[in-house]
Structures are given as C-alpha cells and as structure tokens.
Amino acid sequence: MSNFHHHIKKYWIVALVSFLLCLLLSIPARLAIASYQAPRPQAILMLGGTVLGEREEFTAEFARWYPSLEIWISSGLPPNKIRKIFQATGISSQRLHLDYRAVDTVTNFTSLTLDFKHKRIQHLYLITSDYHMPRAKAIAVLILGSQGITFTPLSVPSNTPKESIFPILRDITRSLLWIFTGYTGASL
Questions:
Q1: Domain coordinates in residue numbering, the chain
Q2: Residue 82 to residue 84: CA distance in whole angstroms
C-alpha cells in the first residue's frame, strides 16, 4: 500500500509542478497577445517613490504629447503637489488617477491590475527612475503579464546608481507569490 501512496503523491507533485510551469510559461504568450491587441499604450502608469517630484514632472511633460491617455500615479507625492505639477503643464486633473494603496514596488502593480482590467487597458507606458526600471520591469512582466497587460518602459534620468540584484530577486519572488496566492508579502 505504501508503494501505491508513493506513486499517487509523486503524481500530484508532478501535476502541480506542471501546472505552475504552464501558468508561468503562459505569461510571454499573454504579453504577446496584449501587444497584438493593443499595439500602442492606452494609459500611463507612473510609479511614485521620490520626494523631489522628478518622476511626476517627467510624466506631466510626457503626458502633454498624449492628451487622450489617462494617467495613473501609484503612491507618489501628496495629491496637492501632484495636481500642482500637472496643472502647471496644462494637464487636466480629470486625467489623473491617484492611487495610494501601494506600499512598495510590487504593490504598485498588484493594487492597480484590477483597475486596468476593469478599464480594459492592455498596454501601458510604465514610468519610473532609470535606477529603478530593471526591478519595475521584472515585476511588470510577471504581474501585468499574468493579467494580459503589456507595457512600454520609459526611464526618468537620475544620478542614482542602479539597484543591486537582491531587491530584484526578492520582488520577483514576491510577484510569483502574488500570482499563485494573491498575497504580496508586503508585510515581510
């Protein structure tokens, strides 16, 4: 009987690993489909995180060239400062979607994916600082890609050195955790 249980247990482990691999391998296909269905970005997503407002200023200037795109800002400067920056460039506050649910880079994405899906957004301009972009892209591929949303990255120049590999690997792990469980690990 133990040999039978061993084979059943082995079967379920192989089935689970196969399922998880298929799910992960579907991300590139979902990204390709989203790119095909929405070849041009449909909205702008800016990740907050700096206190000087250089991302907000870059985004406001960039958004002037794309007046039909809504602008999503995830946990940036306080609302009054953001609105002031965008008003100075002639951007209507009606285009702005300010979201302060995120507490870190992973939750910048997880907190907004349902909003993007609800609005049927399949392609985003992703704006963050150049030093932060490798981690943001790694997370975006997994989290946005798993939801069938692709992105076009735009880096804001800075004098800050690129991040080390540790936060990138940590946030890849957290992104995978979210894909499989819905839990971000933000409290870890």
A1: 27-181
A2: 5
- Domain 27-181 sits in which CATH superfamily? HUPs (3.40.50.620)
Per-residue pLDDT of the chain in tens (188 residues, 90 and over written 9): 566 666 677 777 777 677 767 777 789 999 999 999 999 999 999 999 777 889 999 999 999 999 999 999 999 899 999 999 999 999 999 999 999 999 999 999 999 999 999 999 999 999 999 999 999 999 999 999 999 999 999 999 999 999 999 999 999 999 999 998 999 988 76
Instruction: Report the SS3 class of residue 41.
Output: coil
3-state secondary structure 73-117: EECCCCHHHHHHHHHHCCCCHHHEEEECCCCCHHHHHHCCHHHHH
Alpha-carbon dihedral of residues 164, 167, 173, 176, nearest 10 degrees? -100
Quick check: 43 and 69 in contact, CB under 8 A? yes
Distance CA 135, CA 45 (A): 15
Q: Are 54 and 74 spatial neighbours (Cβ–Cβ below 8 Å)?
A: no
pTM for the model stands at 0.89
Q: What DSSP letter does each residue of 130-172 carry, written as one string? A: TTTHHHHHHHHHHHHHHTT-EEEEEEEP-SSPPPPHHHHHHHH
